[in-house]
Specification:
By secondary structure, this protein is mostly helical. It has 14 helices and no strands. The termini are far apart.
Length: 298
């Protein structure tokens, strides 16, 4: 009888384990189903306005105000895009915004990568104090120092120039912080080996650090190009000539003049997001990798 009880115990344990495993699997499936439903609902909420903008840009004026509204146009037209190029001088806006965004992004990334390398891999007196002082300026809203910055810009004669849009923002705290975080993923022994071989600091930075920082580099390039492309408040304040407007200010002025022509307005908005959308599609793999790696160490 004892032997029968001893033999029966494992089978009971196996049955309980199987039951518990099946229960855990069902809970996992329910959890995944709930996650998919929530994420799907959130995706729909974000995608529908985007689809509505694109669809409205191809609608004639009569269809943009029809009731009940339709998601897709009945008689699609490209006249809205032709009108926005003619009326809003879209070509000039594109050129101004592209030039400023590219130059600012280059300066942003280069100076921030250099400072991130210094704060992440060099040891010197007061390093942490200087870093935290710089980092503390990140919490100050731009609106707080907008007027002093504008007065300084006027005093040096940069008002209503592209220089005023580029120079005050050639260095950014956020990118410096992200690059400093990324420096922790690069072995210090690799840098020491390069120094032993006779490499200078500039050679190490340009030939070793920059290539190894490709993930963070592309991530921040995408972010800062988007932020520079969408910059509105500072260009609105410092630029007064229409031929120097960036796309955000130009479209805001255009909307004020043609506020009831929704198809034309949506065509302008659709054209404004094309460069950002194309850039994010091109570098999305690096963005995911960069976000993960820069959060490994604090």
């Amino acid at each position: 009888m004892a032997n029968q009880d001893f033999v029966g115990v494992p089978s009971q344990v196996d049955a309980r384990s199987l039951t518990r495993g099946a229960t855990d699997f069902q809970r996992l499936r329910r959890g995944l189903l709930i996650n998919y439903i929530v994420l799907g609902a959130g995706a729909i909420l974000m995608i529908v306005p985007f689809i509505w903008m694109i669809s409205t840009s191809f609608k004639p004026q009569a269809e943009t105000v029809s009731f009940p509204p339709r998601l897709f146009p009945i008689n699609p037209t490209i006249s809205n895009y032709i009108d926005v190029f003619d009326r809003a001088n879209m070509g000039q806006l594109y050129w101004n915004t592209t030039f400023i965004s590219v130059i600012k992004t280059i300066f942003n990334i280069y100076t921030s990568a250099l400072l991130g390398y210094i704060f992440g891999k060099f040891v010197f007196r007061g390093r942490d104090i200087i870093f935290y002082i710089l980092l503390s300026t990140w919490i100050i809203p731009f609106e707080v120092y907008l007027i002093p910055l504008y007065l300084m810009t006027v005093q040096v004669g940069w008002a209503d120039t592209f220089t005023a849009l580029i120079v005050p923002e050639i260095f950014t705290i956020y990118a410096m912080f992200m690059f400093r975080q990324f420096m922790y993923t690069i072995p210090t022994e690799l840098i020491d080996a390069a120094r032993i071989d006779g490499a200078g600091e500039w050679y190490i930075f340009h030939r070793i650090i920059i290539p190894l920082s490709r993930a963070a580099l592309f991530t921040l390039i995408a972010f800062y190009f988007m932020w520079n492309w969408n910059d509105f408040l500072w260009p609105l304040v410092v630029i007064s000539s229409h031929d120097k407007y960036v796309i955000t200010v130009g479209l805001a002025t255009f909307v004020g003049e043609f506020w009831n022509q929704y198809g034309v307005i949506m065509a302008g908005a659709s054209l404004a997001i094309i460069p950002i959308l194309a850039l994010f599609i091109a570098v999305q793999r690096f963005i995911i990798e960069g976000v993960v790696l820069t959060g490994l160490k604090g």
